[in-house]
Structure formats: structure tokens, C-alpha cells
Amino acid sequence: MSVIYNTGVYSLLIQAATGLADLYVLTLDFEGDIVFVKNLLWIEFFVQIVELSFYVWLVSRFHTISNITPYRYYDWIITTPSMLFTYSMFLIYHADNHVDFYNTVRENLLTFASIAILNTWMLFFGFLAEMGRISHRIGTALGFVPFIMMFYLIYENFAKTTFLGQTTFWAFSGVWALYGFAALMPYKLKNAWYNILDLFAKNFFGIFLAVYLWMNRKNSAK
Questions:
Q1: Rounded distance, CA 210 to CA 102, Å?
Q2: pLDDT digits over 75-105, tens only?
Q3: Beta carbons within 8 Å of 63's beta carbon, 6+ residues apart
Q4: How far is Cα 86 from Cα 158, in angstroms, rounded to an integer?
Q5: How far apart are CA 47 and CA 76, in angstroms?
Q6: How many separate helices (H) and strands (E) can be counted in the chain?
Q7: Closest Cα partner for 122 from 102, 142, 96?
Q8: Residue 21 sits in which domain range?
Q9: CATH code assigned at 53
Q10: Residue 93: closest CA among 84, 104, 108
Q11: pTM above the 0.85 mark?
């Protein structure tokens, strides 16, 4: 069996397990400010549903498609801006627990929009490379420009004010940066790495939010 198929199956199983764990936490009752994080976990759960759907398709259609990589962008164009939004919103909440969800979105709308646009450009350059319009080296180099810019915005506006923000920022951005290096690898190795990185980038952040909710559940009514 191909390493892409095997890692895809393992990824699919872990996604299902982590998704069920997140869903369990979402069924619990929370009150007060922590509901803000529960709303974020619902968004992250949606991200995992999209990811899971893609991997079900990948595993079921693997032997009939010669190049799976371009199809990943249909997943990423939906999931990556959602993840950047939830991560940024979490950083805002962690810095100040007494924030309103919709007011926070409105007050930071321009920054969120800028991050989403930069993310789209990053994906666009990667997609051009996968479609053979530009080389993978050029696509990766160009993609890192909006990548650095959008994570700079996240750090300066949201992450740098707390220790947890700084710590998670380097972990979050570091995992995302590895996608760029994986893009330069041969086809099989690249997609095997994508299967693994998707777990860390998407599912583990969902688990992080679920654990954060669980640990703060006793204080949710205060």
C-alpha cells in the first residue's frame, strides 16, 4: 500500500476519535464568559467535519486519482481561514476573558479580513505550483510572503500580550510553516507529510480548545 494511503487512513481514524472527543465537550453545559470558547470549538468542529469529509473522499477515491494534491486546496480554502479566525479569537479571549463574541468580531473585522486575504494569496501561490503554472520553489517562496505577513498581524495584534499567546503562536505558526517545506518534497512524501500535518494543524487545536474548556468548566458560572 502507498504511504499516502496508509497515512491517510491513520489520519482519518484519529480525526474521527478527536472529533468525537470535541463533540462530547460541546454537549456539556457552560455558562458565563467561557461560552466564548465553546463558540470557537463549534467552529473548529466544523473545520474537522470538512477535513474528515475530505479524507473519507481521499481514501475512497485514492486508487482512481493520479494526483491528489490539488484537491487538498478545496479543503484548505475553507478550513484555513476558519482556523486562523478561531485562533485569533481565542487569543483575544485569553487576554481578556470579559469580551463579547460579536463585538470582538466587529472591532477586529479589518484585521481578520486582512489575515483572510493574505491566507488566500498564500494558498493561491501553492495551487499555481501544484497546477504546474510556476515551479514549486517559486510557489513556496511567494507563498511564504503572505504567510509571514499574516502571522505578523496575528502576533502583533493578538498573541504577544500573554505567555500562552506567545507559546501557542510559535507552535501554531511552526506547524503551518512545515507545509511550505513539505511542498518541496517528492509527491508521495509530500502528501504523507500533509496527512500528518493536517492532524497537528486542525485536530490538535480542536483538542486544545476542548481541554481548555474542560479545565475551566468549574469557573464557567462565575
A1: 21
A2: 999 999 999 999 999 999 999 878 899 999 9
A3: none
A4: 12
A5: 10
A6: 9, 0
A7: 142
A8: 3-219
A9: 1.20.1070.10
A10: 104
A11: yes
